[in-house]
Amino acid sequence: EAEVAQSPRYKITEKSQAVAFWCDPISGHATLYWYRQILGQGPELLVQFQDESVVDDSQLPKDRFSAERLKGVDSTLKIQPAELGDSAMYLCASSLATPKETQYFGPGTRLLVL
Amino acid sequence: SQQGEEDPQALSIQEGENATMNCSYKTSINNLQWYRQNSGRGLVHLILIRSNEREKHSGRLRVTLDTSKKSSSLLITASRAADTASYFCATETTPYSGGGADGLTFGKGTHLIIQP
User: Fold this and answer.
1) CB-based contacts of B18: which residues, under 8 Å, 6+ apart?
2) Do residues B106 and B4 touch, judged by C-beta distance below 8 A?
3) B88 to each of A45, B32, B77, how far by Cα in Å?
4) Which residue, A35, A54, B80, B116, could crosslink A91 as a Cys pair with Cβ 3.0–4.6 Å?
5) According to the model, what pLDDT value does residue B98 have?
6) ω before A25 within 30° of 0 (cis)?
């Protein structure tokens, strides 16, 4: 069964450093989402792509976060500089273009900022 | 901000018993979905119920939706130890337009523990 791939699975970094997460959606899924999940909370949407275009990045802290999906397939989420409050699970999800109801999630990248 | 709120926050039952979790939300929705998350893992889609549906079944899962009360419930029958996980409701509120933003809004989850 096809799955959403994410790497790395775990990342420890010091504050003020740069970190990057990678996501490879299920083949053929045009829509890609990045969510952040703080421990004990539900996921919160950071950014949504339709192919290579950003559809919604209203909740993305653009002063330090950036996301790209240059060829409309895999995607990278970057944080620079990382802050202590960025410690969380970063989840990537993808869905078919039509319908877009069910989102398939990857295993996530757990980030710890020291 | 989070749209859905699950209740209870934590639930512990004996294996074989039924588990019921509730979700309340604030704004009009297109559909409501339930996801499961095992500790430290990604989310797994369980079931989707549309705003014009009242009840839906999938295996041991039964979901109800009451749009007048802006609430939903998830029932897991004949629980198993493997059902131990966190369960989240998620809502999609944007009208489907084929290209619009439709990121899900999740609640804080119910942590379910099945005692063997």
Assistant:
1) B75, B76, B77, B78, B79
2) yes
3) 14, 10, 17
4) A35
5) 44
6) no
- Residue of B2, B43, B102 with shortest CB distance to A105: B43
Q: Distance, in angstroms, between A18 CA and closest chain B CA?
A: 23
Does residue B97 surpass a pLDDT of 70?
A: no
CA dist A89 and B74 (Å) reads 25
Give the bridge partners for B112, in sequence order.
B11, B85
Contact A49, A66 (CB under 8 A): no
Q: Which of B86, B102, B106 to mutate to test the interface with A (most CBs of A within 10 A)?
A: B102
| Of the listed ranges A68-77, B22-31, B83-92, the one predicted with least confidence | B22-31
Q: Which of A45, A57, A60, A109 to mutate to test the interface with B (most CBs of B within 10 A)?
A: A45
